[in-house]
Amino acid sequence: MELTADYLREKLLRGLEAEHVEVEDTTRNRCATSFRVLVVSAKFEGKPLLQRHRLVNECLAKELQCIHAFEQKTLTPEQWRRECRK
């Protein structure tokens, strides 16, 4: 399986019914496969950070076996709108 930012983005969009997803391949700055993601989904409503991250990890369970470093930021649509206004 070839892991690309586009592949991960599409999987997160579909798997979490995300409103917005950004994926940055940070591999060139590190020694192994690395990604940074931002996921905005209504599925995160009312969930603490740990549960949100678990949802992302479940969505990418197979892919995470091949990823060395994975940073994630998870927001609800309302949190995303507030952040965009800053």
From TrEMBL:
Transmembrane segments: none annotated. One of its GO terms (cellular component) is nucleus. It holds the Pfam family BolA. InterPro entries: BOL2, BolA, BolA-like_sf. One of its GO terms (molecular function) is 2 iron, 2 sulfur cluster binding. GO terms for biological process: intracellular iron ion homeostasis; protein maturation. PANTHER family: BOLA-LIKE PROTEIN 2, BOLA-LIKE PROTEIN-RELATED. Belongs to the BolA/IbaG family. This is BolA-like protein 2. It comes from Dipodomys ordii. The gene is LOC105982106.
